[in-house]
Amino acid sequence: MSVRVGVVVFPGTNCEFDVQYAVEQLGGRVELLWHGEDSTKGVDAIVVPGGFAHGDYLRTGAIARFSPVMRAVGEYARSGGPVIGICNGFQVLCEAHLLPGALQKNAGLKFMCETVALRVETTSTALTNQARVGDVLRIPINHFEGNYVCDPRALAQLRAEDRVILRYVDNPNGSLDDIAGICNAEGNVVGLMPHPERASDVLLGSSDGVVLLKSLLAAATSRATLLV
Description:
The chain is an alpha/beta fold. The protein has a single domain, classed as 3-Layer(aba) Sandwich (Rossmann fold). The protein has helices at residues 16-25, 68-78, 88-95, 152-160, 210-227, and strands at 4-9, 29-34, 45-48, 83-86, 102-104, 112-120, 136-143, 147-149, 164-168, 179-183, 189-192. The strands form two sheets. Strands 2-1-3-4-11-10-9-6-7 form a nine-stranded mixed sheet, sandwiched between helices. Strands 5-8 form a two-stranded antiparallel ribbon. Helix 2 (68-78) links the parallel strand 3 and strand 4 (83-86). It is globular, with a radius of gyration of 16 Å. The termini are close together. The mean pLDDT is 95.
């Protein structure tokens, strides 16, 4: 079964076609979801991709969270649908309170564009179910505000509930507890700063992102099967 992955597009989004290419190379289909539409169009999974939604004015993701599509994404997430936020998409999911915490400016106040090593910490999520705990993946980052923060209570909860899904092997941006990605309590909503779609082909420098994208498609297939 060819599953349909919705990719949200805001003014300023610039990674939607990267995600589309990577998903379609793995056999999925993509439906672009314009931010002004209050519908997820019956897709089997959703990706909120990277870029600069609404120019990152006011605060990254702060305006995007009020777009009509985010009401639909929120309802979809609460119904158990797989939702992945990548980079700017992670920031949007935090602003929309679909994930805890926030992303602030990198330590050192420098924009970062490099390939980093990530360690898989859990496999019970929509983005890691095809990986193995302890796997180290080489995936690029491309951000200025990727420094994850949350209050001590939220961090304790993330740790206790095994909701830190990816950690930096060598923390590049100052993120609390080396966090590169987290999930909600149910594991169906995931946010991460690195870009797996940019590590989907060895010609791009790494294909380590494929296992994460295959996990997303597996979660989407499971969702589609349940709804048949």
